């Protein structure tokens, strides 16, 4: 099994997606309202929006972890109904590693859960570790690693089954600024190499514009797509000088203007 090979990116098609939660005291909370969205194979789409606008809800719906109230989600033409699609991998803000399992056993967990051949996947897990700069860390326990290293392991765990669609929910939100910067660049490199589709949720306008082919800006709840912005900048992009690029600055300004118009950002 060659993990260095490219992964066929999945296509995501969302139409008329609505999600209403019922709170414990029976109040309806309309989290997402009528989302239409197509994500092309192999593209990197980032979603930014104010806190509580429904970004995580969108990701959970696509992941099949939450049931839609209305509308339809298809991944490679397969309708998602409250059940994860086999072609997805998910990375959350918290690494969610099991502290009693070694790094290698954490990465192999999805294989074990699906009753696949664990032994056959060990070389692939080790290769993934090498690719994220953690060669030789397979026998360590999560408590022996830094936050950034643990998140790299979580990414390996999401990639072990070569997912055509990688869903990332604020994956670098809990990391210090330097580690975050390194992880952003590493993610760009990894995605360029693998070629899978990525749906990336973030609060960070800077990382969204830097990483994505397209940035979706959401409105405050109920979440709707307020702006669908194509980021036309050559790759590989360099974090160290991207901020000086007038194109980059223009995209960031456009997104900030939307947040200012929404009253999410207030200039003093
Ligand atoms: N299980 C739930 N029951 C009731 N309401 C919920 C539930 N989950 C989310 N909500 C509500 O739905 C809305 C959207 O939540 P969601 O977590 O998707 O937002 P978000 O944009 O990811 O927020 P943040 O950026 O702060 O993580 C919020 O108002 C939230 O309170």
TrEMBL record:
Q: Name one GO molecular function term.
A: ATP binding
What the entry lists under InterPro entries is as follows: AAA+_ATPase (IPR003593), ABC_transporter-like_ATP-bd (IPR003439), ABC_transporter-like_CS (IPR017871), ABC_transporter_ATP-bind (IPR050166), P-loop_NTPase (IPR027417)
- Spell out the Pfam families in the cross-references: ABC_tran
Q: Which UniProt keywords apply?
A: ATP-binding, Nucleotide-binding, Transport
Q: Which domain of life is it from?
A: Bacteria
Q: Which family is it part of?
A: Belongs to the ABC transporter superfamily.
In what residue span(s) does the ABC transporter domain sit?
12-245
- Protein name per its UniProtKB record: NitT/TauT family transport system ATP-binding protein
């Amino acid at each position: 099994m060659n993990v260095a090979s490219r992964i066929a990116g999945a296509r995501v098609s969302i139409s008329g997606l609505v999600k209403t939660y019922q709170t414990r005291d029976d109040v309806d909370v309309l989290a997402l309202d009528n989302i239409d969205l197509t994500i092309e194979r192999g593209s990197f789409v980032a979603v930014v929006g104010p806190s509580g606008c429904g970004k995580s809800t969108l990701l959970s719906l696509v992941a099949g972890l939450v049931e839609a109230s209305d509308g339809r989600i298809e991944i490679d033409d397969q309708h998602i109904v409250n059940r994860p699609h086999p072609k997805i991998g998910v990375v959350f803000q918290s690494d969610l590693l099991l502290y009693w399992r070694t790094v290698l056993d954490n990465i192999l967990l999805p294989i074990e859960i699906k009753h696949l051949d664990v032994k056959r996947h060990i070389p692939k897990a080790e290769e993934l570790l090498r690719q994220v700069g953690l060669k030789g860390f397979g026998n360590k326990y999560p408590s022996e690693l830094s936050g950034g290293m643990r998140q790299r392991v979580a990414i390996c765990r999401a990639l072990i089954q070569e997912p055509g669609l990688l869903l990332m929910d604020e994956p670098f939100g809990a990391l210090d600024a330097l580690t975050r910067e390194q992880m952003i660049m590493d993610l760009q490199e990894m995605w360029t190499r693998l070629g899978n589709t990525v749906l990336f949720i973030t609060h960070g306008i800077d990382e969204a514009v830097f990483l994505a082919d397209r940035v979706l800006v959401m409105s405050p709840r109920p979440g709707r797509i307020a702006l669908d912005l194509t980021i036309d900048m050559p790759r590989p992009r360099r974090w160290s000088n991207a901020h000086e690029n007038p194109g980059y600055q223009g995209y960031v300004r456009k997104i900030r203007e939307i947040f200012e118009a929404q009253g999410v950002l207030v200039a003093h």
